[in-house]
Amino acid sequence: MEKQAVQRAREAFLAGRSRPLEFRVQQLKSLQRMITDRQGEIATALKQDINRVSVKHTVVVHYMELFYLELKRVLLGTQKGSTWNSKGMNKVDCNVLYLKAYIQPEPLGVVLIIGAWNYPWALTLQPLVGAIAAGNAAVVKPSELSEYSASLLKALLPRYLDQELYPVVCGGVSETQELLRQRFDHVFYTGNSTVGKLVMEAAARHLTPVTLELGGKSPCYIDKDVDLRVACRRITWGKFVNCGQTCIAPDYILCEPSIQNRVVEGIRQTLLEFYGPDPKSSPDYGRIINQRHFNRLMTLLEGYTATVGGQSDSSQRYIAPTVVKDVPPQARLMQEEIFGPLLPIVTVSDIDDAIHFINEREKPLALYVFSSNKKVIKRMLAETTSGGVTVNDVIMHYTLNSLPFGGVGQSGTGRYHGKHTFDQFSHHRACLVKSLGMEDVNMVRYPPQNRQKARR
Ligand code: NAD
Question: Which residue numbers are catalytic?
Fold first, then answer.
């Protein structure tokens, strides 16, 4: 089944079906229509999977618009200021020696997109948009954990897109592993780093390049020189949206002991504003994806007294927005990515201590710094590393298509969003086109080197 889907996609790719720019634009438009037409069904699936009020797909629509407008501009020949010229090329050089040098982005072939469950639509469709725009065939494997979204995607995609070029394969570990035994031209994986290693290993057997969009513990440093009201509001939103199940949610807070209690109070007050006195009954507050993750989070919390929240209800997979203060660096809560609504606060003595703390650990996917002090911001940016960083807010670097999104080290490899997705799914072929004239110029490189060359 998996094998056949890959074979059919390869045949369709080799027949050249995915290459014409007009076809790519038409497919992207159709995909956009799917998202607009089926908004209601998508929202219901998200609600069933993760109790989410759907907003994220609007980002995907915007993202698709960007791609097809760009390709349309190319097709219509109004490419002024556009990224690609009329042949899909980036012109590099051209000179009087009848020589033309340019970079031609080419499709890679058949790519595999493996999505995660926490944003099941965005994490499959955003890479798919780039794969289509770049002229590839793509096999899409949504996460089995967000099962309603996965089966809806499988039902919808063939109604809007070429069925052979863009098949959806559903299933869990065994289906994904069967897919990974096939030969692809690129594998784009989103998920945890343990599976990321398996994906890289499987891809290495075919020398297939990979993009790994992984996770990790993203720190959030709050300087004492800051408007704490604003900082706490922004952090609270980013931590508890989607019930903390966001790869770039702030994982933990670092701050000096002198401001810790005010940070706690700021978050408590914001939670009240966002979700009311009982977050469990708020339509804006989510649930944990499944029982396994619920149990994992409850185990992480064992032995701590929550400063804010701490309540849970296993029957609904509900965990209240929870803050734990004075968490020791060696605590269990600080050993693995939390990926849920638990927010530990670790105190540091000053910015040096905070920088040291961050650099002692794996390179994070995101880093957040809240400060009004330019020197503090400058030092944090200069003396740490992370996949991306937002200063004085959280998550927002993800939303800019101009910025590449991805991890570094353990938090991932490769990048996407906007033009970066197109690049990730393209081979940048170096092209040099010469004329057969002006042969004299070439004589110098022909043997014999030490004899006078005969003129031809
Ligand atoms: P998941 O369980 O949905 O797994 C992701 C995909 O891997 C699924 O399609 C699944 O079928 C497949 N898979 C699972 N086990 C496998 C195995 N043994 N062999 C082959 N394939 C397998 O998602 P998850 O891993 O729980 O996702 C959460 C993680 O993903 C977090 O670490 C989070 O930070 C990260 N994440 C990263 C991004 C990003 O953009 N960087 C986005 C979302 C999530």
Answer: 213, 247
In the chain, the amino acid numbered 384 is T
Task: Give me the amino acid identity at 192.
Answer: N
Closest approach atom of ligand 1 to CA 199: 20
Residue 288 near ligand 1, beta carbon < 6 Å: no
The three-state DSSP-derived secondary structure of 297-363 is HHHHHCCCCCCECCCEEHHHCEECCEEECCCCCCCHHHCCCCCCCEEEEEECCCHHHHHHHHHCCCC
Q: What does the H/E/C string look like for 20-70?
A: CHHHHHHHHHHHHHHHHHCHHHHHHHHHHHHCCCCCCHHHHHHHHHHHHHH
- Kindly state the DSSP code that residue 253 receives in the 8-state scheme: E
% of the chain beyond a pLDDT of 90: 79
Residue whose structure tokens are 């690049």: 423
**Whole-angstrom Cα distance, residue 48 to residue 213?**
25
Nearest ligand 1 atom to alpha carbon 172: 11
Q: Which pLDDT belongs to residue 365?
A: 98
Check: CB of residue 418 under 8 Å from CB of residue 406. no
Q: Which element (helix H / strand E) includes 203?
A: helix 193-204
141 touches ligand 1 (CB under 6 Å): yes
Q: What is the pLDDT of residues 229-283, one digit of tens each?
A: 999 999 999 999 999 999 999 999 999 999 999 999 999 999 999 999 999 999 9
Query: What atom of ligand 1 comes closest to residue 198's alpha carbon?
Result: 19
Phi, psi of 175 (to 5 degrees): -65, -40
Is residue 254 classed as helix, strand or coil in its secondary structure?
strand
- Cα(117) to ligand 1 centroid in Å equals 7
Please report the ipTM that was assigned to this predicted complex.
0.96
pLDDT in tens, 307-324: 999 999 999 999 999 999
Whether ligand 1 lies within 6 angstroms of the CB of 410 is answered as no
**CB atoms inside a 10 Å sphere around CB 420:** 18
Asked whether 188 lines ligand 1 (CB < 6 A), one says no
Ligand 1 atom at shortest distance from the alpha carbon of 177: 20
- Look-up of token digits 């004085």: 392
Can you tell me the distance from the alpha carbon of 12 to that of 107, in angstroms, rounded to the nearest whole number? 13
Pocket test for ligand 1, best of 192, 205, 212 (most atoms within 8 A of CB): 192
With tokens 């933990």, the residue in question is 252
Ligand 1 centre to CA of 215 (Å) is 9
